Amino acid sequence: MRILVVEDDVDLNRQLVTALTDAGYVVDSASDGEDGHFLGDTEPYDAVVLDIGLPSMDGIRVLEQWRKDGRKMPVLLLTARDRWSDKVAGIDAGADDYVAKPFHMEEVLARIRALLRRAAGHASSELECGPVRLDTRASRVTVDGNPVKLTSHEYRLLAYLMHHQGRVVSRTELVEHLYDQDFDRDSNTIEVFIGRLRRKLGIDCIQTVRGLGYALDVPGAARAAD
User: In what residue span(s) does the OmpR/PhoB-type domain sit (predicted)?
Assistant: First the structure.
């Protein structure tokens, strides 16, 4: 899952990027409103952490423009503790949630997990597909209760498919959502990671839909697209 952080405080920006990266997300960042707006307008993010008080273009204007242009990614606003009016303005502009500064990083991570779940139509922090279970809080994967050790790339790939199970996800979409803007994006690497995931999971849950991409389904379930 790919996250954008837009925060002008250098230290806080770095802390957010580090925490989100350590939690298994791919993270891009910007330090002012114009750069943040451009990235959110041109790159496919699964969620955005957006500060309100930004130079060049404030966070409310950035958000309003994204929504006006049809950008629907979930947005978590960072607001000053004593500015309730900012919270109201942010929600009215299209924010999905907010957290007041100063905050605990675990709260931001929990809110991001919740936004991603809701965007994909999931209510629980544990995603299931047949015997495969992915715990988004602990970044832990099990099959029939047995832990499966995955690399960060393998985990991100499985997590994206788990969040979007039941539909076909193209290679292009996977590349766009699993790698940051500076990564040498080669769709062939997706095939390599898919092969590794299949071997490690040991069950037939990742289906290849010829000419379209991949779909995660309960093992044994029939797909009309195959």
Answer: 124-218
In tens, the pLDDT along 149-171 reads 999 889 999 999 999 988 899 98
Residue 50 burial by Cβ neighbours in a 10 Å radius (0-12, 13-18, 19+): buried
pLDDT of res. 225 = 42
Q: Which helix (H) or strand (E) holds 129?
A: strand 126-129
Q: Report d(CA 15, CA 102) in Å as an integer.
A: 13
Q: What are the pLDDT digits (tens) for 112-138?
A: 999 998 888 887 889 999 899 999 888
Q: Report the alpha-carbon distance of residue 209 to residue 226 in Å, rounded.
A: 6
CB of 219 closer than 8 Å to CB of 203: yes
Give, in degrees to the nearest 5, the angle at Cα 17 between 16 and 23: 90
Domains of the chain and CATH, by start = 2-120 (3.40.50.2300), 126-216 (1.10.10.10)
H helices present in 83-170, as ranges: 84-93, 105-120, 152-163
Q: What is the pTM of this model?
A: 0.81
